[in-house]
Design goal:
There is one protein chain. This protein has one domain. It is an all-alpha fold and 275 residues long. The N and C termini lie far apart (37 Å). The chain is globular, with a radius of gyration of 18 Å. The mean pLDDT is 83. Helices cover 78% and strands 0% of the residues.
Length: 275
């Protein structure tokens, strides 16, 4: 399991600058227009955004290696460590300042994640899930993302960025879950999951681009980063029957860590130091 954790941390370290570059590229594209917001094909012409997209797919490749080495229930929560790397990447790439309050929130979320993994001790679960459960999961995900995209597009400023980021985070989690399907399937089922992987890998940048067009990088990335492991973990429980420690004391500790992580992400999403 240690190799999986190390590789996933490397993936998170690559995802963070990828997201910052995509956010900066989106803002640059907006600044280049006299009015309105850039369409996706216009973002593809922006070198900063395109560099972020390429780096994102490199990180996604490393992510696949991490999932192949360990349980999704252990690997995916580590995506929260992006909260550490995003401010660092923003300081280097965008010359942004990071306040002491932001660093306190980052440390709190990271510490809560570590406690969650140590206390929860998630199991590996079953290697394969019935096709019927997969179809229900995918159908629910498609409807949920569509509703969030439709509702978010009607909002303004920060709420719009948060809701669209929620949809993007769900797609990112779905990418990790279907990768698990690719690794644990054979024959035509493997090709089915490969197709789903490609769809989710293409959909995420499109949806996240809409979120990046509005608000600070902390709003979009914080929501994406928190929703990703939560949705992937719920999917793991449904599909692979993953379980965590359920004693009363452990449950209480886990509840506290979830609250701390949520409050930390909310604090980061309200930050004005990483615009």
């Amino acid at each position: 399991m240690i190799p999986a954790i190390v590789v996933m941390l490397l993936s998170s370290a690559l995802y963070a600058p990828a997201l910052v570059l995509q956010h900066q590229g989106s803002q640059e594209a907006i600044g280049a227009l006299s009015s309105g917001k850039p369409r996706f094909r216009e973002l593809l012409k922006n070198r900063t955004w395109l560099a972020g997209l390429i780096l994102f797919y490199v990180a996604a490749g490393v992510h696949i290696v991490a999932i192949s080495l360990g349980s999704l229930a252990v690997v995916q929560p580590l995506i929260v460590t992006e909260l550490i790397f995003v401010p660092i990447a923003a300081m280097i790439i965008s010359k942004a300042a990071v306040s002491g309050r932001d660093w306190a929130a980052i440390v709190a979320v990271s510490a809560a994640l570590a406690v969650f993994l140590i206390v929860g001790r998630p199991t590996a679960g079953d290697p394969r899930a019935p096709l019927g459960q997969w179809l229900l999961f995918l159908g629910f995900t498609i409807v949920l993302v569509a509703v969030l995209m439709l509702g978010g597009s009607r909002l303004k400023a920060t709420p719009r960025a948060a809701v669209l980021s929620l949809a993007a985070g769900i797609l990112a989690a779905t990418y990790a879950v279907v990768i698990k399907g690719v690794l644990d399937s054979v024959g035509w089922e493997r090709w089915f999951f490969i197709g789903l992987t490609l769809i989710s890998a293409v959909s995420f940048p499109i949806v996240s681009a809409e979120a990046f067009k509005t608000g600070a990088v902390t709003v979009s990335t914080s929501v994406m980063i928190l929703v990703n492991p939560v949705y992937a973990s719920l999917a793991s429980v449904w599909l692979f029957h993953v379980s965590i420690t359920s004693s009363p004391l452990a449950s209480a500790v886990l509840a506290v860590t979830v609250v701390v992580m949520t409050l930390g992400v909310v604090s980061l999403s309200r930050s004005t130091s990483l615009g």
